[in-house]
Amino acid sequence: MQNNTDGVPEIFRKKVERLIEINEAYAIQYFDQLLLLEAYKKKHPTRVVVFKCSDGRMLFAHFTGTPLGYLHNFRNLGGQFNFGWKGLQSAFNYHVKEASNDNSGCLAIVTYHYSEGDAKRGCKANNFDKVISIRGAERFARQIRTAYKDIGYPASVDVVVVGVETDEDALILHGENGDHQPVNLGDSSPTVSEKELLQKIRVLFPSMSTTMCVDFLPLIHNNIKHIAKVRKTKRPITELDHNEFVVGIGGSLAFDWFHIPNIAILVGQHNPNVERPIKSALEVIKPNAKKEGFILLSGASYGKHNPEAFALAEAKYYSRLGQELVKQYHPELLEFMYPMKILLNTETQKFKMF
């Protein structure tokens, strides 16, 4: 099905066409990498789940060099999660059960982010406070560890806290017991060996299984290589600031095709008080919205585990909720907003507008 933009107001048409282009390019890349993905998953069977901020720069697959579809992402503004959220419990436990069915483990990577060069390029949702961001990530990691301690699943569940320094996309590894100083991969030599890195993983995460250590290793090694490329290209500082023009509301799978920085702020569906992160996202995007307009994008995915009719109802609900919140809290943004609704086919990774 071809997405038609004829009915889109001219002032928003280029933005909508840009989203269509990004999605189509991702779908082609995803299809081309399917064989690579299957081979990678056989070599690295650990199911890796990433909890991260909705910030448009948090492209974990990009700066860890993993094939599209290998990482399973959960997003919320500020990277703020609570394992007491029933929907989040169910969604994460699905991945744990899938890992059990595959006789593998499940690794949860709980992230936070900050900027070394300028605190104001850090996490706005956490008031640019790195300490608050770290405490939130560590608290959520403890919740997961406590929940799965002695639970009896065949699959092992492990949790690591990882910071992201967004100026260089450098990962910061926090040891599991706080016994070691966090390790900034930006301090590692690009020529470091896999053997050295594996030893480092063993020291930081002594209870992690051997298989999980081996599967975690490529993410770390690829990030070190990525940092070297960032430094070599001397990425313009403007790319590090908030320039998003999309507020996306809906399921994580509906937005996995967003792989380009500073396009969207994405709000997940697992927060029972989803209105709060939507309002926060509108605050973040407001300066850009008033200058260039913005897309209020509502999406849901359909496929093997979710009928299209269910996804349709979900996307409609989030669109209505988002528009109501704009009217209630930011009526001055209505003239700068274009509501866009999409359904994503998880088999093809293509969306269709409706």
Question: What's the arrangement of secondary structure elements?
Answer:
Layout: H1 10-32, H2 34-43, E1 47-53, H3 60-64, E2 71-76, H4 86-101, E3 106-114, H5 130-148, E4 157-165, E5 170-174, E6 183-184, H6 194-204, H7 210-233, E7 246-250, E8 264-267, H8 275-292, E9 294-302, H9 308-329, E10 337-345, E11 350-353
Parallel strand pairs: 1-2, 1-3, 3-4, 7-8, 7-9, 9-10
Antiparallel strand pairs: 4-5, 5-6, 10-11
Helix pairs in contact: 6-7, 8-9
CA radius of gyration is 20 Å
CATH superfamily of the largest domain: Carbonic anhydrase
CATH architecture of the largest domain: 3-Layer(aba) Sandwich
Tell me the strand percentage band: 15-25%
Helix content: 40-55%
What's the helix count? Answer: 9
The structural domain count equals 2
Shape: globular
Report on the structure:
This protein has 354 residues and is α/β, with parallel strands linked by helices. It folds into two domains: 10-26 and 244-353, 60s Ribosomal Protein L30, Chain: A (2-Layer Sandwich), CATH 3.30.1330; 45-237, Carbonic anhydrase (Beta-carbonic Anhydrase, Chain A). The chain is 42% helix and 19% strand. It has helices spanning 10-32, 34-43, 60-64, 86-101, 130-148, 194-204, 210-233, 275-292, 308-329; strands at 47-53, 71-76, 106-114, 157-165, 170-174, 183-184, 246-250, 264-267, 294-302, 337-345, 350-353. The strands form two sheets. It has a six-stranded mixed β-sheet, with helices on both faces. It has a five-stranded mixed β-sheet with strand order 8-7-9-10-11, with helices on both faces. It is globular and about 55 Å long. The chain starts with 9 loop residues before the first helix and ends with a strand.
